[in-house]
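Why show two proteins at once? Because comparison is the fastest way to build intuition. When a single record is shown, students tend to memorize it. When two are placed side by side, the eye starts asking what differs. So, the first record is below.
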Amino acid sequence: MQEEPISFTPTFPEAVARFSSFFSKRDAHVIICFSIFIKLMMDKQEIINIGEVLAKELAKASSKYSIKSDHYDILGYESAEIEKIAKSIKNGSADTSMLSQSTLLSDWGAILEHDIPELILKVKQYRKLCEDFLNSNIT
């Protein structure tokens, strides 16, 4: 009876180690460039994934409020904004100007400050993460 090989997705360091084993010391610059490229691509996908999850979380939070309430509108608009940012990063069309307008972080959104402080913090952190990524000029 033949055993099935165990398959797994290697971690970033494991992937780099496997890749680098094919090259000699003189090719170190290639390995470094490849490592940076892979890490950045992983970061980009992670940022997209975080944005998609956060947009869903905001939409779910909005459903807890009356459709006629400001709370519902604020969270719905923020959900759409976060989803738009994630899609723009995915398509390579995002820029930092997209990050300047946040419904949830505006004066209007302040009415939710005590209701959902953790979600507000997530939105701030996500927008900062996107800003740092976009300012790195690697999209």
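Second record. Ask yourself what differs from the first in the token line.
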Amino acid sequence: MKYQSTAKLVVICITLLIALLFFKDSLHEFHFKNKEVSVDATFVAYEVRK
């Protein structure tokens, strides 16, 4: 039982990491539009280079 929940957690984490790699350039923008509400948010993204 414990092995199944651990395996599910590992699969979910790997899937999230792969999704982050594909969408990392557009993660700083958020758009939501409904019939009555429209929300646009932009987050500041920075990168540290050495």
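One difference worth noting in the second protein: The chain has one domain: 2-42.
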